[in-house]
Amino acid sequence: MKEIIQALFLGIIQGLTEFLPVSSSGHMSIFRHFSGMATEGSGLFSAMLHIGTLVAIFVVFYKPIYELFMEFFRCFKDLFSRNFDKFKFKNMSVTRRMLFMFVISWVPLLVVLIPVGNGNNLMDLVGVFGSDDSIKAEGLCFMITGFILLLGTTVAEGTKRHLNVSPLTALIIGIAQFFAACFPGISRSGTTVSAAMCCRVSKNNAIRYSFILSVPAVLASGLVEFKDAMESTEIIPVFPLLVGVVASAVVGVLSIKLLQLILKKNLYKYFGFYCVILGFIVTIIGAVEVFIK
């Protein structure tokens, strides 16, 4: 029963923090730090929670995702039929243009695969911040997230919004996603949505673009964790695993809908205040723990 309750709780945390701009990795790291929950053997569970959040994205944005998927194959059809005119930016359909914008935004994320020696890549190097015993890094990153959210809200107010994402905007959003992927406490959804709003993308389009953009990143993260879990001898009961996945999916859908409503009501800035306050508290606690030890 304890495992089921814990799985339900973690699924709810994943579903809320993956989509609300408050950093799921940062909250998970803090929860594990204060609860004393062992991280060994939790790779499979974490991977399945990511599957739950992917389900939420597909449920809410199934139409644009399907259109992008079909456009991907139409690109190959035009390529093999040498219909190159449809690849000119001015002649592209809205869906094809958006597909190319996503490609631009995904490019900066490839930087985490750069080798840094000893068989490690950049992601392995920065990943220590989320796996060490200290929470100071998480605290600082939460405060950075808060300031980014407040900046996005401030810039977006009173400015004319654009419906489409330009190549420069796509690159800026991609860079924002790169930094969020590197550090626990920097919200991926928060930084990408805020970056889009700073570039004057409409709120609804900023959310849609941000969450569809996250699909390859979340899938890749889940696959890496799943691979690591397969190398572990830890056995996780099936039922708690399913409870966590369902909870993360259901809460994820509700979180996306809630975020859309929050942006519509101009309440986005309060997430910024929350992250700044939480980050300050976590940083202080982390500093105190260093002196106590």
Overall description:
The protein is an all-alpha fold. It is 74% helix and 2% strand. The protein contains 13 helices and 2 strands; from the N terminus they run αααααββαααααααα. The protein has a two-stranded antiparallel ribbon with strand order 1-2. The radius of gyration is 20 Å and the shape is globular. The model has no long low-confidence stretch (mean pLDDT 84).
Oligomer: single chain
Q: What spatial order of strands do you see in the largest sheet? A: 1-2
Structural class by sheet pairing and helices: mainly alpha
Mean pLDDT: 84
Gap from first CA to last CA: 34 Å
Sheet-strand content, in percent, reads under 5%
- From the alpha-carbon coordinates, what is the Rg to the nearest angstrom? 20 Å
Count of helices? 13
Low-confidence stretches: none
Secondary structure tally: strands? 2
Note the main sheet: 2 strands, antiparallel
Mass-distribution shape: globular
What string gives the helices and strands in order?
HHHHHEEHHHHHHHH
The percentage helix is over 70%
Q: What topology emerges from the helices and strands here?
A:
Layout: H1 2-19, H2 24-35, H3 43-60, H4 62-80, H5 94-106, E1 115-117, E2 120-121, H6 122-126, H7 128-131, H8 136-156, H9 167-182, H10 188-198, H11 203-230, H12 238-264, H13 269-292
Antiparallel strand pairs: 1-2
